[in-house]
Amino acid sequence: MSMNFWKKIIACLISISARIKGVKFGKNSYIGPWYDLDPKMRGVVLGEDVMIGRRAWLDIPLKSGGKIIIGSGTQIGRNAVVSAIKKIEIGKKCLLSYNVSLIDHDHRFVRDVSPMDSGLTEGREIIIGENCFIGAHSFILKGVKLGKNCVVGAGSVVRESYPDYSVIAGNPAKLIKI
């Protein structure tokens, strides 16, 4: 039997497993092997033709009621982290390279309290417009809104919002071109 046949079987089993865990799948959507999803998690919606690479971590911590919405045709590279207490929405036909993190909250710091007991801060939505590209090893932090057709350079830390057609890069990210 061909290797393609076995890949389709494995993809089908992974998709069934993710559906059981509460992920809503659009037609032809795929999550790569070794993904990490909490079995009690709800609130993840994948549009049609979404591809999420291996070892991705989609997370809604602490049963917060957060939402992760990924638009049709979007591809997310391996080792991505998408963690939402509030809401993370990625538009249609976006490309997120490998090791990209989108996190809509921070870890709280309380003096004389262990980090494990300090908890998380309140989340702020992250919205990524359609047709955006986010380069490898980039971080998109809470409250960021990127307009459509934006490009984020590799290794960027995005802390602010940017309008349509922005090219941004750096740590912290700065506008390079509109």
Summarize the structure.
This is Acyltransferase. By secondary structure, this protein is α/β, with parallel strands linked by helices. The chain is 12% helix and 29% strand.
CATH architecture, please? 3 Solenoid
- Kindly, what is the distance between the CA atoms of the first and last residues, rounded to a whole number of angstroms? 50 Å
| Strand fraction | 25-35%
Quaternary status of these chains? Answer: single chain
Summarize the helix and strand pattern as letters. HEEEEEEEEEEHEEEEEEEE
CATH class: Mainly Beta
Q: Quick check: average pLDDT?
A: 86
CATH superfamily: Hexapeptide repeat proteins
Protein name: Acyltransferase
Organism: Candidatus Kuenenbacteria bacterium CG_4_9_14_3_um_filter_39_14
What labels would you give this structure?
Hexapep, 178 residues, eight-stranded mixed β-sheet, alpha/beta, UDP N-Acetylglucosamine Acyltransferase, domain 1, Hexapeptide_acetyltransf, five-stranded parallel β-sheet, 18 strands
Please tell me about this protein's structure.
This protein has 2 helices and 18 strands. Strands 1-3-6-9-12-15-17-18 form an 8-stranded mixed sheet. It has a 5-stranded parallel sheet with strand order 2-5-8-11-14, with no helix packed on it. It has a 5-stranded parallel sheet with strand order 4-7-10-13-16, with no helix packed on it. It has helices at residues 3-20, 115-118; strands at residues 30-31, 44-46, 51-52, 57-59, 67-70, 75-76, 81-83, 87-90, 95-96, 101-103, 126-128, 133-134, 139-141, 145-146, 151-152, 157-158, 167-170, 173-177. By secondary structure, it is α/β, with parallel strands linked by helices. The protein has a single domain (3-177), classed as UDP N-Acetylglucosamine Acyltransferase, domain 1 (3 Solenoid), CATH 2.160.10.10. The radius of gyration is 17 Å and the shape is globular. Pfam families: Hexapep_2. InterPro entries: Hexapep, Hexapeptide_acetyltransf, Trimer_LpxA-like_sf. It comes from Candidatus Kuenenbacteria bacterium CG_4_9_14_3_um_filter_39_14. This is Acyltransferase.
